[in-house]
Amino acid sequence: MDFSIKACDWSKGEANGFLTGKSDVIVLGVFEAQTLTGAARDMDVATKGLISRVVKAGDMSGRAGSTLLVPEVTGIGASRVLLVGLGKQDAFSQKAYGEAVRAAWRVILGSKIGQATFTLAQLPILERTGDWAVRTAVLALRELTYKFTQMKSKPDNGARSLKKIVFSVDSADEKAAKLALKQGVAIANGMDLTRDLGNLPPNVCTPTYLGQTAKKLGRDWKLKVEVLGQKQIEALNMGSFLSVAKGSVEPPQFIVMQYQGAGADTGKAKGKNAPIVLVGKGITFDSGGISIKPGEAMDEMKYDMCGAGSVFGTMRAVAEMGLKLNVIGVIPTCENMPAGNALKPGDIITAMNGTTIEVLNTDAEGRLILCDALTYAERFKPAAVIDVATLTGACVIALGHHNTGLFSKDDALAGQLLDASREAVDPAWRLPLDDEYQDQLKSNFADLANIGGRPAGSVTAACFLSRFAANYPWAHLDIAGTAWKSGAAKGATGRPVPLLSQFLIDRAAL
Ligand code: BES
Ligand code: MN
Ligand code: ZN
Q: What is stated as this protein's family in its record (predicted)?
């Protein structure tokens, strides 16, 4: 899809070619009060009152979510007008804007329209700017057009008509809107990668496959990529990670991807260019291991690598945006399977940093692979480390499928992530991490137990990770409820790529 930005200050004369510019549709907003403003008013004049007549006839009330496609329009370059109801103007929030945008895209995608002119990003949205509106519209369209068809035996024959979209923006917003467009496309491309990796079946998307994906990403986007195998992981003493991997016939991989958008963090710049490290849980299938899961919906445990998938997607987005900062993606990846040689409840293992862990449940495996990756991350002297993981069913119980769980002892870092989450409309909610919860992880035999019982299960999981992340600013995102959808709409969401990308955009601007 080809997106572009063109400035236009409506009602100030020439309309910069928008009145005569050829397209298959121009999208115009109508508020409930029905007084036409901006683009809608200019188009009304140019069409000799067509839009006012439609509104007067009662065919477009301005009710939020309503749409009307008016065909065979004359007097302007566009051959159709798509009117979109916006609701009350003084309540035109980001949510109302998002609904109007999605309604418009749905109508267009359901038609034969190939070229669209889109004016809704110029509407006055409460607390939001024009560039935000462009990025949000791009992401909404890309979300609606995403399809996962690569495992179907016959190619998808429903070719899409929509090819070209021109956004009108106020000339004062033009520069920012162009940047937002570039960012929106990069984030959407990153999300598509995240969704594809999540949706691939676990017999295809294995640890080896993720290693190959990293190498390809490195070639395409000039990242420095290392993929460590069993022997090298052993040499690093990652006893905790390896204990999870050993029951599987698929070899584990430890992936490191480095994007250097700022200078090296050496010499005079030491500390100034310290990288942000993203750590992603890469369990390509979580059967539970010997503490095996019940059969229902177990197929969805192919999504247990969505943390890793979101790190891939974010690295891709960051590289495409060309952000001026250093970002490192670290992914421990393996399967969690039962076997004669698998990890057992009661086993005591030794993590890379020397901590001994009593494994009371082999299904609490995410923390066991992440803890060694968090220790490994120390070598980069990071400005911050953020891990992303489909870590606990308890997080789904606490927050459902709307908010990602955010855990951090660092108020500044947590605040930056929450700000990014709001800006990106990728919701996250901060949950506690008080030291009092650490008691639940006491073991009679080892330094630490790998589970803390049923109360506050996502908090104790985060507490476990915190023991390995004491040497740098750290935050943990539990995406168990937000990484994919179940039921008829089963599929990966691409979250939290928008949140992470926005966080990195903001960090690069510091
Ligand atoms: N990958 C799961 C968490 C999960 C479960 C995510 C369901 C999304 C939906 C994780 O490895 C796991 O099994 N966690 C256990 C921990 C428990 C044994 C302490 C859980 O949440 O039940
Ligand atoms: Mn598990
Ligand atoms: Zn898991």
A: Belongs to the peptidase M17 family.
